[in-house]
Amino acid sequence: MSGWIGFNTAVSGLLTSQRKLYITNHNIANANTEGYSRQVATQNATLPHRLPGIGFVGTGTNITSIERVRDSYLDYKYRTENAPLGEWEIKRNTLLDIEHILKETEHEGLSKYVDDFFKSLEDLSTNPSDDSYRVAVREKAIAMTNHLNEAANKLYNLEKDINYQIGAQVKKVNDIGSQIKNLNEQIYKLEIDGKKANDLRDQRDLLVSELSKLVNVQVSEYEGKYTVSIGGATLVEHSNLSKLKIPPRTEVSGITGEKLVQVEWENGNKVALKTGELKGLLDVREGTGVNGQYGGIPYYVKRLDEFARVFAEEINKVHRQGYTADGSDGGDFFEATSGGNIKADNIAVSQLIKDSLDNIATGKNTVSNGAENNKNILELLKLREDKTFFSGGMYAQGTPEDYITSIISTLGVDSQYAIRMKDNQKLILDSVETRIDSVSSVDPDEEMADMVRFMKTYTASAKMISTLDAIFDITVNKLGLVGR
C-alpha cells in the first residue's frame, strides 16, 4: 500500500509542476496584454495517510486555485484619480481651443484690430478731407467687426462640437455598461463552483477603468453579483443595465439658440456627475463663470458680447454728436446686422458709412463745419484712454485695451490652472499605476526563474516515478527468483 502512496505522491508532484508551468506560460504569453494581471497557483499538501504504529505519511500535493495578483485598494484608488484627470484634460483642451480662437499676438488678435482702428482715426484727424484716410477708417472698422464675428462664430461651433462629444460619451458609457453586463453573466456562470474566471475578471476591470475616466464610478461585489454605479445610481447590477440618455433640453442655448442635449437616466432622473470627462464637457459647454460656475465657452462669449456692445455704444454716442462732410447729423458708426442688441456675432459697420465715406462724422459743430473739421474725430480718439469706457458691467472696467487684456489674462489664468490640475492629477495617477504594475504586471525575468524552478521539480518528480517503477519491477518481477 505504501508503495502506491509513494507513486501517487510523485505523480501529484509531476502534475502540479506541469500545471504551474502552464500558468507561467500563460503569464509570459500575456506579458504585454493590457489589463492582464499575473496569475499564481495556490498549492497545498494533500491529506496524509495514517500508518498504524508509525504515524502519518504524506500523500503529495495539489493546486487548489489559480488567483490573480491584484490589490483591490489600488484598483479603487486608480478609479478615484482617473476621473479628475479626464475632467481636467477636457477643460485644458477646450481652453486651448479658446486660446487659438482669441489668439493675441503682436500681429493678430482683437487688441491689434482695435489699435489699427484708433490709428486710422488718428491719421484721419490730420487730414479729414482725404478720402484715403476715410477709407482706412472704414476698412479697419470692418476688419475689427469681422474679427469679432469670426471669433464668436468659432466659439459657437466649439459649443456644437462639445454638444456632439457629450452625445458620443454617453453612448460610450452605455456601450461599456453593456459589455460589463455581458461579462458579469459569463463570470457568474463560470464561477458556480467557486473558482475564479481570472481572464474575464481582467477584461471587466479594464472596462471599469476605462469607464472611470468618463464618469465617477463606484463598484461593489456581493455573493458573486457585481455592481457598477455612477454618483450613487446603478449603471450595472449583475445582469441588469440602466442606460443613460441624451434628450434635448426644452430651453435653447444662450449662445447658438439651438437645443442642447442633457444627460439623464432612462427613467428621467438626473445623473449625479461629480467629475470625469463627461462632467468636464458639461462644464465647458455651460459654464457662465458666475455664481461659482466654471468659466466655459458661454463665459468668453459673453465677454466678447459685452465688449462689442459697449464699444459700439460709446463710439456711436460720440459719433452721433458730430457732423458729416455735408453738415448732416452723424449717425451710428456701428450697428447690428440682424437688428436688436449688438453682440460679437452681429456687430458691423453702419450701412450708411459703407455706402458713403462722407457719412463719417469728423466735424464737431456747424460753426466750424468744413472739410478740415476734425473735432469729433479728436473726441473719438479720447475714448481710447478713457478709464470709464467700460464701467458698471459684469466684468472688467477701464479702457478698451484694458478690457481685452482682462479677457486674455483670465483665459491665461484658467489655462494655467487647468494645466496644473491636469499635471498634478497625472502624477498621482502615474504613481498609482506604478504601484499597480509592481503588484500585478508580469515580470519576464521572474517568470523565467519560476519556469526553471518548476521544471526542476517536474524533472525530480519524473525521476521519482522512474525510481518507483524500478522498485515495483524488482518487487513484482524479480523478487523470489533466486534458487528457482
- Total discrete domains: 3
Structural class designation: alpha+beta
Name the helix and strand elements from N-terminus to C-terminus, one letter apiece: HEEEEHHHHEEEEEEEEHHEEHHHH
Question: Which of globular, elongated, flat, extended, rod-shaped describes the shape?
Answer: rod-shaped
Number of strands: 14
Report the end-to-end length measured between terminal Cα atoms: 27 Å
User: Mind telling me the C-alpha Rg?
Assistant: 38 Å
DSSP helical segment count: 11
Widest beta sheet: strand line-up:
5-6-7-8
What number is the mean pLDDT?
A: 90
Q: How much beta, percentage-wise?
A: 5-15%
User: Low-confidence parts lasting 5 or more residues at pLDDT below 50?
Assistant: none
Largest pleated sheet: 4 strands, antiparallel
Q: How would you classify the quaternary structure?
A: single chain
Q: Percent of residues in helical segments?
A: 55-70%
Which helices and strands appear, and what pairs or packs with what?
Blueprint: H1 2-29, E1 39-45, E2 49-51, E3 55-57, E4 61-68, H2 72-101, H3 110-126, H4 131-190, H5 198-214, E5 217-222, E6 225-230, E7 233-237, E8 240-241, E9 244-245, E10 248-252, E11 259-261, E12 264-265, H6 277-286, H7 297-319, E13 334-336, E14 347-349, H8 351-355, H9 375-382, H10 400-440, H11 444-478
Antiparallel strand pairs: 1-4, 2-3, 5-6, 6-7, 7-8, 9-12, 10-11, 13-14
Helix pairs in contact: 1-11, 2-4, 2-5, 2-6, 2-10, 3-4, 3-9, 3-10, 4-5, 4-6, 4-7, 7-10
